Here is the input.
Amino acid sequence: MQEIGSSIRPARKLPALLSLRAFEAAAAHLSFQRAALELSVTPSAISHQVRALEDTLGQALFRRLTRQLALTPAGQRLFDDLRLGFDALEAGVDRLRQPAASQSVTLTTNTAFAARWVLPRMVAFRKACPGIELRLHASDTLTDLARGDADIAVRSGSGNWPGLVAQELMPERYAPLCSPMLGLKRVADLPKHQLIHCDWQPQALAPAVWPRWFREADIAPPRGRAMKASGLSFSDETHAMLAALGGHGVALLSLTLSAEELRSGALVQPFGPVLDTGSYFLATASGRENEPAIRAVWAWIASQGGPM
Here is the structure.
């Protein structure tokens, strides 16, 4: 077995660290008294350590004048080198004491997109951007990016928002979806089933609501209040999807956010038409698009554009 340490470099031939620290402080202040205050020792201790260092090196480092000190040429050279070395040592220790905090980026989006698109990708995000903490703000109320309430948003709409930089992420389409256990296959059979409604924000450009679907399908809708009175209504699209999965009726749902359920067969699209509701856009306040952390999160989200 190889002896431990047999291949390690030879030991450094350095004077005692206490002597080097005492000399560096005294040289910086040109005073044993002030050096003693800095190192919390007595002036005689500083004088003793400096004398020991001079004895070790075999040359004088200070000229001791009346009530003051002056560096010899050798002392000046040593002080210059030690100052650089101690500065580097202090910086290295500070980096260990205060490790660099991870950068954080707040992403805001609506609750359905957060639950159905962002959360399933969080593990992949952490692997792709390990130095960034992604904070998710899920709300159906628009957040003021210009005021700094969030760093990046995923919003649906036109992408034409003053004061913001926007990039199209993916188009969004809605269609009637339901559980296969309903056995629904023909538009003519739709009146036999309960309609599931979901509220849309007032600013939505082209909301996917049942009255619009009936118009585009060129089918007469239930009259008056009967359309909602005979159905279920939710304020959140995720809840509407859960109701459809449970076989409680037919819902107009996002084909992007329902992609996994459509692939697995948990939900089916029995017929059209499909409603175009615009696109999802990435957005951030103008002037912030080149911040490194924002740029990294932006690029990662853009690379994930599309359904799961």
About this structure: The longest strand covers residues 164-177. Residues 179 and 245 are 5 Å apart (CA to CA). The mean pLDDT is 86.
